[in-house]
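A note from the maintainers: we've had questions about how concatenated examples are separated. There is no special marker in the raw files; a new sequence line simply starts the next protein. For clarity in this README we add a label.
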Amino acid sequence: MEKYIILKSGKRCIAMQCRCDFCKKLFIRVKSNSKQAHNFCSNKCVRKFYITTRVTLECHECGKSFTRVKSQLKNSKSGYFFCCKACKDLAQSLDGNSKGLRPDSYGKPKMKFAFRRKIALGEEIKCVSCGEKALYLLIIHHKDGNRKNNEDSNLEIVCANCHLKRHLKKNGDNQWHYHTRSLTHENC
């Protein structure tokens, strides 16, 4: 036989008996279709439960003590914990203490700086095929098609038109179309 309780609004609801996850006391609550992770008899038990599941940690950057819920500890990929976002950002910067948080590419020249490297060497920035000099039309092209190979010998500066020509492929109808993974010889 089902038990019913009457809410303050006068609505009659099906009730179920539960055991509080904190104090282990039996209590009656409204039955719901949702699957709740925890059952608590009062807000006081909720607060006490979450206080007891907190851990005191020390900020990896500034050394300040702070608390976190145990379930949040698994969210750290590096194993480092920080009291605030500012400390985390500082740790990830080149000035911070946490070298383990920085990507491998920190401090290494990147493809997008190829223009700057060429300017520093005194080279004129223009398309190697047609001679276009407008910087907003120029693109860095990888000669071997490997985007991770950012050696100067593999990079060339081309305009958008010439870059499209570098990635053409013939389809079944003997028509040329743009294909990012195809490399066309520059003289075609």
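[label: protein 2]
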Amino acid sequence: MAASEQIVEGGFAEPVFAAQSVFRAIMDAMARPGTVHGIGADAGPPAPLNAVAAAVALTLADADTPVWLDSDLTRNEAVRGWLSFHTGAPFAEMAADATFAIISNPATVPPLSGFALGTQEYPDRSTTLIVQVETLTDGPELTLAGPGIKKTQTIAPRPLPGHFEMQWRENNALYPRGIDIILAAPDAVACLPRTTRIANGEA
């Protein structure tokens, strides 16, 4: 397939219906952290961007939301062209300037504290990370607690950014500031809002 075809093709076949469906799944996942919500995304982005991360970007990103890409995606002209064509979102050169960040390779993500963390007055002016993962159920288990979770909730994503539990506890400590994370597996999403605590090892 020619590069121009890769860029133009692969958007939602029915944009309004698809975006509504994906948005509902994201909102449900944010309201119930750690729960897995299937997405039958019909997006067909260029690799290495996966279909679910692409569907989330198509749903949330627009001309007013700068998007930061990790190094693997930044180097891929087809991915950059596809996102620009289908969302109209500008690209943020600095992680701290991004409304959304798309991470295709969690091993290379910069420290979470390097993204926009919001302010005390405007905590919503922070970055939401869209992190591609291979699985939400077959990685090392994380036990979650916090708002939207009755007692605890277990999720097992893989891979995650390095020293993730430590970084996430530091993110919790910034509340009401802090980042939120959307985990994008090949066919589903799960969310970690800034209010969610990793309870592994807690008494």
